[in-house]
Amino acid sequence: MRRGPTLVELVLFSAVLIVMASMTMPSLATVRARSRGNSCVSNLNQLGLASLMYAQDYDDRFPPARYRVGGQTYSILHFLAPYAQRSEYWRCPSDPFPATRDDFLWIARRHGDPSYPPLAIESVSYGVNHAIVAPTGRPPYLLDELARPPDTALWYDALLATDGQSITWLASPRHGGFCNVGYCDGSVRPMHCTADTADSALVTVRYARTRTGESSYLPLWRVDRGPYAGQSELNGVIERDGKPLSAARAPAAPSHH
């Protein structure tokens, strides 16, 4: 007669299963994180391609960060939406708190606009290099004005933040301490960041600000190395000597294209 497993055998078998599961879970988590990171890289590739396609259609000039027409301000999202129509292109799967339509409306009101033009994009996880799309005192850059496109950031993993006065897109290293960055030549590479925990570096990050007003204090993340070293917001056009020529964002939207 065939006997069933003994209690000791069942306990040993269960222990083996538990050990195998404990060994497998970290691997699965790593695979999922890598998959999310790959999706983010793909998104930034799409945004870079959309920006370059826009430039090809508009005399090789990058889209403006803001553009005022008929009493309303249109953002760079409006200009690139026809080239990057899928909402998921704008959302990093590792970003739990992307900027939303309510946030865009809040920003529009900060610039004196009571409403925000309709936009199909639901949420945004990426910031743009304002030195390119909103340089002070001049239109956005032309493609051939960039001395080092492969080293000049265009789009990057970012978190919309405010200190109550100004609005900024802070680098957000959502991928194991790395922030994915899309460059002006269409390439995408990771950039390592380190948290600045000094009290003076704490910033107020408002999640879904117009819905709940909820705020959270977070440290700034600063780029470790390269031409953007020390920056918490990737803002600057890289010159031939490898140093960034920074330019503050324009205070108001232009009234002509």
Structure characterization notes:
The protein is of the alpha+beta class and 257 residues long. The protein has one domain. Helix content is 27%, strand content 24%. The strands form 5 sheets. Strands 5, 6, 7, 8, 9 and 12 form a 6-stranded antiparallel sheet that branches. Strands 1-2 form a two-stranded antiparallel ribbon. A hairpin with a 4-residue loop joins β6 and β7. 35% of the residues are buried.
Shape: elongated
Helical residues, percent = 25-40%
Structural class: alpha+beta
**What is the element string, with H for helices and E for strands?**
HEEHEHEEHEEEEEEEEE
Mean pLDDT: 79
How would a textbook summarize the main sheet?
Answer: 6 strands, antiparallel
**Unreliable stretches:** 206-212, 247-257
Give the strand content: 15-25%
Helix tally? 4
Q: Separation of termini?
A: 89 Å
Number of beta strands: 14
Q: How many structural domains are formed by the residues?
A: 1
- Radius of gyration (CA) equals 22 Å
